[in-house]
Amino acid sequence: MQEGPVPAYSDDDPLLRGVRRICLALPHAEEVWRWERAVFRVEEDTFATFGGDSDFPFAVAFMPDPAKIDSFLDNEAFVVANQFSAHPWLGLDLANGTVDWSQVEALVKYSYDKASDC
Q: 5, 36 in Cβ contact below 8 A?
């Protein structure tokens, strides 16, 4: 479903395709476009986005396990992301070398579980 402005990313972008494959494999997940990014949600609650800013244009944003935030931020591939909810959000730079898709899947799955509990 297309909502909001025209996407800033091509549908055939390999990073977007990877994030989309992971997110849309989750039950009842859907993709909408808002803020020039792909927004993945379950029951209207956002659990991940693909997009970013000028410093990290190819990033996946997610709700992390609060107990792991400091350890994530010790890694320069992670940044504090915009808040999409009352929970803290982080972004993982996907353009910073080889993507560990199993890590992306675990991060997105945790975020999905948090969003679907809301």
A: yes
